[in-house]
Amino acid sequence: MPRRKIIIGIPTYGRGWTLNSTKPSSCHIGLYAASPSNATKFVVESGVAAYYEICEMLTKGAKRCWDAEGAVPYLVYENQWFTYDDVESIQRKMAYLKRQFFGGAFVWTLDFDDFNGLCDTHRNDTYPLIRTIVRELSGRDINTVCILRLIEYFQYMK
Question: From which residue to which does the signal peptide run (predicted)?
Answer without folding.
Answer: none
